[in-house]
Amino acid sequence: MTDKPPPLRRLIDLPGVKDLEFRAVMKREFAEPEARAEFPEIDACSTALFGLTADAAETVDRPAGWDDIELKATLVQVAAFEAAGWDVTDDKRRPLRVLGHFNAQLWLAVRGVAGSLPFVPENTKPEAWATSLAAEAARFRKR
Question: Is the pTM of the predicted complex or chain greater than 0.90?
Answer without folding.
Answer: no
